[in-house]
Write a structure and sequence with these properties.
Chain A: It holds the Pfam family Fer4_17. The structure holds 2 protein chains of 2 kinds. By secondary structure, chain A is α+β, with helices and mostly antiparallel strands. Chain A is 30% helix and 15% strand. Chain A has 2 domains: 101 residues, Ubiquitin-like (UB roll) (Roll); 129 residues, Orthogonal Bundle (Fumarate Reductase Iron-sulfur Protein, Chain B, domain 2), CATH 1.10.1060.10. Chain B has one domain: Up-down Bundle (3 helical TM bundles of succinate and fumarate reductases), CATH 1.20.1300.10. Chain B is mainly α. Classes of the chains: A alpha+beta, B mainly alpha. At the A-B interface, helix 8 of A face helix 1 and helix 3 of B. The structure holds iron/sulfur cluster (2 copies) and FE2/S2 (inorganic) cluster (FES). One iron/sulfur cluster binds next to helix 7 and helix 8 of chain A.
Amino acid sequence: MSKRTVQFKIYRYDPDKDEKPYMQDISVELEASDKKLLDALVRLKTKDDSLSFRRSCREGVCGSDAMNINGKNGLACLTDIDGLPQPVVLRPLPGLPVIRDLIVDMTQFFKQYHSIKPYLVNNDPAPERERLQSPDDREELNGLYECILCACCSTSCPSFWWNPDKFVGPAGLLAAYRFIADTRDQATNERLDNLEDPYRLFRCHTIMNCVDVCPKGLNPTRAIGKIKEQMVRRAV
Amino acid sequence: MVNRIVVGAHYGLKDWIAQRATAVYMAIYTLIFAACALSLPEFSHEAWSALFANGVFKFLTFLFFLALFFHAWIGVRDIWMDYVKPVGLRLALHVVTIFLLVGYAGWAAQILWRL
Ligand code: SF4
Ligand code: SF4
Ligand code: FES
């Protein structure tokens, strides 16, 4: 295979050196084995080792290399480099404070995630073996448990941009529904109480940016609708 | 204390349902209104007044305005909640919005019962 060159336009910001962020034009020659955008970034780092980004698993399971790719949030490791319109414009996830280059501070995101108590609450004594579910009940959790907390969704959600401190955001709400839907969980009422709030849940205006970007193909809007449905069923 | 984020007002569902219910009513009313207006014998002030002289129609129309203003209240409040950060300013905007919408409702009643 002939050598391929990729042009990049990358958001750069090192708070220790730069007064303000700037866009760096840079290109890199790929090896035949470089298939994904992440491969290209790793290759690029051999050329300019000051470039900073997070990555770990390089196969879409750790959720650390989420970034804004040509205007749309996604995982670098799941994005094919061939076919990406050039120059490939890379920016950090929108709406979160930038630590350096493509690395953002996810504190707010995880704070919201933790606020929905993302763990099973069950006060019965633990059985000798695991707590069992029927296959049908287990089925309910599909499309919910697969979330890798990459934050692509929440950082593409305008409601989360405006109120990241108060609106739980699509990722947190998807996780909230994952436990509301779990038949082994005993805190359903508390969970619904916790979300029945004009900010925490009802800031979602069904804009559906979250569904559009989720690299795992999950549907937070649907989960949010289900939470509302549970609330209605409880109230009327 | 001032810097703590406080959430958990425990309302939201009712407003959300009300927003949908009022939207449905407005859609239904629009159909009724269109049907009534189109079946008028002629487009004259007399025919128009006769339509609104009907008690049921008056009632449905007033209900429409109430639905509209309540729908607007939730929508406008959403805008304040999304974009206005200072709490004092937000409160002031909420109050102004309520006063205006209640005023409009009274005004609508006045107009309807004068027709
Ligand atoms: S729902 Fe999808 S986009 Fe959002 S954090 Fe989970 S995996 Fe990422
Ligand atoms: S559907 Fe709701 S959570 Fe998803 S992007 Fe839109 S406002 Fe945000
Ligand atoms: S590196 Fe783990 S998801 Fe991309």
